[in-house]
Specification:
- The strands form 3 sheets. The protein has an 8-stranded mixed β-sheet, with helices on both faces. It has a 6-stranded parallel β-sheet with strand order 13-12-11-14-15-16, with helices on both faces.
- Helices cover 33% and strands 16% of the residues.
- The chain folds into 2 domains: 290 residues, 3-Layer(aba) Sandwich (Rossmann fold), CATH 3.40.50.2000; 169 residues, Glycogen Phosphorylase B (Rossmann fold, 3-Layer(aba) Sandwich), CATH 3.40.50.2000.
- With 476 residues, the chain is α/β, with parallel strands linked by helices.
Amino acid sequence: MRILHYNWVDPCDPAARGGGVRIYAKALMDEQRRSGGHDCAALSAGMVYDLSSRAKPRWQACGPGRFEFVNTRPVAPSHAEFAAAAQIANPATEALFRDFLLQTGPYDVIHFHGLEGLPARVLSLRRDFPNTRFVLSLHNYYPFCPQVNLWWQERAHCSDYDNGARCRTCLPVAPNPLAVRRAYAVETAFARIGAPAGSWPYDRVLRPALSAGWQALKAVRGRKPALPAPDRPDTAAPDYAKRRAEMVNLLEQYCDEVLAVSDRVRDIAQGFGVTKARTCYIGTRHAEAWGRTRPRPLGADPLRLIYLGYMRADKGFFFLLSALEALPDQTLARLHLTVAARKGPAQVMARLRGLRPRLAGLTLHDGYAAADLDRIVAQADIGIVPPLWEDNLPQVALELHARHIPLMTSDRGGAQELPGTRDLVFRAGDTADFACVLARVMAGQVDLSGYWEHARIPTGIAAHAQELEKLYKGAQ
């Protein structure tokens, strides 16, 4: 089969943007080529721009089997052009997408790993390519939420957008789309002169400068809610309810498959009106660890907790700090905490240092690579996955679960579906409930036999590729 995979970020992005979705998409394409003999191509959009504002949209090859759109709209990721009309329709980009398919196709399948960076109406091109199946995976909630993860003002779960009224004050500081495009243009120019992401000029000069500029802008504007910047042709205030309705209609009308990466995501999507959404758990190369590891009893003293991922509010890291800080000294003295995450802001690191004297031990890793994971988790008794948002299916949960490390998870998102029981699930954002679950663990009141007996066996990337092939062919 000829398969086109779309994601806003290139699978080989030297700046490693795009998080776990980029890593997953690359692994999937590699497996489809290896085991299925399929011809896979990758397309990205919304991040490459020329310095001239008059440059026309075009597409170009950026590596073997990899293509990118240049000078198109909307800008990616979604925050860069929050709820702009171009996220729904942009005739120039839609025409370019059609030309790209005609010039590089035909494709049997186009697998969209999201729609950021493209106007959603490209889905209507399904009518022009009747022999191509359109498949979309819901790795986030972009079709329903321009902030992408139902996370209001970077501080709270959004369960009701009030017919779009809350969206108007969603971003504490809205990026200027024109400024973002210019920043991308400078990045593109650096790459063309031999200084791409990962090079000394980029990492030591450009990236710190752009980051400092953004932080300074946030400081100047403070935390005052702002509307999207009106520096674009479509300056009318966004109609958030209309945006959601049109996105849902496009998915329902033109996608052959809408794949939710967990049951929770499926239920949320169906609640928003995507009735055809079905669950298709993603595969992971970490699934191989399931066969070489075994469950361990929870009887250690101190109990060794581990947190993997990002030091971010939506991921629940700040909540975790608050929950631990609220525990009595005698409890903390029986806990060892390992954190494998990129170093956070100074105030966050200060809170971690404040916990150190009260804990039995504290181990910090400034991020981690897949090759180091077995070593990092070797002594872990239990993993902490505490998202405050409806995290679709955290990669870190799969990494720990595949190694038979039980998970204490919040009741939001897909991680809670991996254990075989709900004994270790606590209410998201509830420090008292977190403490109760942890107390049961430390008292030896959690029976892990049912937890593992009914646990979801992680799907390997090869098995996942085979399942997708059946879906691509409409066999399921």
